[in-house]
Design goal:
The chain is of the alpha+beta class. The chain is built from ten helices and seven strands. Bound molecules: adenosine-5'-triphosphate and magnesium ion. Magnesium ion (MG) binds next to α7.
Length: 356
């Protein structure tokens, strides 16, 4: 028995020694010259005989992988008309060439676009600066013309010089008209340049509306119209830019008064279910066709070219009103029927929150 154990230990010891020795030798050889192909190569079917050898398949795959990882499309895959992989490589390279070329074109176009945008931005800035300067320069002498014509009108009246009064009134109203026009153009360019801001304050809606009504009364009566106001007094106060909201409502009211004769103009102010305030201004005037409705908010567009001749105006009132309402987070809606009348509906938030 003892002899058997001694022999068994000898065999195990020699076996272990041979195993460890051959493992170390094989590991050393494998480190310098791999005895197996990589897992990746094995997966696509290479065997020991092709060990470490490259193939078009592998090279093409490596190129694809490199391109995917680096985004560099300038490297090309192997081409060979006699192998399938080589043929795929050939077409793949053509594709890459086209991709590379269109990438370059896109890069060039992007640069050109950036330059064009920069130019447009500075041109728009120059236009706004120019308009701001010009309108300021024009407004000063214009105010003098308006002021002096007023003085002369009073003097002519006092001195009984009725013959001059008519012409002086024309000078005065033309000056007034020109001033409105200059202010409108300045407003549009300010809005376009993103320079118009809202000055938010709280104000009482009832006082605000009665002030607007008294301002527009002469205009309304000019065409023998009647103005009816229906105000929900429970609305109380608004937080908004009072001057700009007044400008919008005056634009709408002056249009209603201008395009209606011996009719009714109704201003209804109410609350909406979503905590907003709704201003509905309807008239029984000339109305607009659906084609005319489409251009109402375009600058210098009057519904009909004959409009400016007959009714005056420039076609800036509505575009300005629309842009201001947009700034307030509101919207304008129009319903109109030719010969029957028009209704403008403005909905704005009751409280406009300060931008952070
Ligand atoms: N209540 C309305 N009834 C009929 N047509 C209208 C009414 N409001 C606007 N329009 C049409 O829309 C056009 C554009 O209105 P907008 O207020 O922008 O210009 P305008 O009144 O002609 O000129 P401006 O307001 O610059 O003095 C008007 O010319 C008119 O044809
Ligand atoms: Mg108008």
């Amino acid at each position: 028995m003892d002899q058997f154990i001694a022999q068994l230990s000898g065999v195990v010891a020699i076996g272990l020694y041979v195993f460890v020795l051959s493992y170390v030798i094989l590991r050393t050889i494998n480190a310098y010259s791999p005895l197996r192909v990589s897992q990746e190569a094995e997966d696509i079917g290479l065997n020991i005989a092709e060990h470490d050898s490259s193939s078009d398949h592998i090279d093409l795959l490596k190129v694809m992988q490199y391109q995917a990882e680096t985004g560099n499309l300038s490297v090309r895959g192997p081409e060979d008309v006699f192998t399938e992989a080589g043929q795929i490589g050939y077409h793949y390279n053509i594709l890459m060439e086209k991709l590379e070329e269109s990438g370059k074109v896109m890069h060039r176009q992007k640069k050109e676009l950036q330059i064009a945008m920069e130019k447009a931005r500075s041109a728009s800035q120059a236009k706004t600066d120019f308009l701001a300067k010009v309108s300021h320069e024009l407004r000063t002498p214009l105010n003098a013309i308006i002021g002096y014509s007023e003085i002369l009108m009073e003097e002519a009246e006092d001195d009984g010089l009725e013959t001059y009064l008519d012409d002086l009134t024309k000078i005065h109203s033309s000056g007034d008209h020109l001033l409105t026009l200059i202010n409108d153009i300045l407003d549009i360019s300010k809005i376009e340049a993103g320079k118009m801001e809202l000055y938010l304050e709280e104000f009482n809606l009832k006082d605000f509306i009665s002030q607007i009504v008294s301002t527009t009364q002469p205009l309304v009566e000019k065409n023998r119209n009647e103005l009816v106001v229906d105000l929900d007094e429970s609305i109380g106060t608004l937080r908004n830019d009072e001057t700009k909201l007044r400008q919008v409502l005056l634009n709408l009211l002056s249009n209603a008064a201008k395009f209606t004769e011996a009719g009714v103009i109704k201003l209804k102010v109410s609350k909406t279910t979503r905590g907003r305030v709704k201003f509905e201004l309807s008239d029984t005037g000339i109305g607009m066709t659906s084609k005319q409705l489409k251009t109402v908010f375009e600058e210098f567009m009057q519904a009909e070219t004959s409009t400016s001749k007959k009714y005056g105006g420039t076609g800036l009132g509505m575009p300005i009103s629309k842009k201001i309402t947009d700034m307030m987070g509101g919207n304008i809606d129009i319903k109109s029927k030719i010969g029957e009348g028009t209704t403008f509906t403005i909905t704005i938030p009751k409280i406009i929150k300060e931008k952070k």
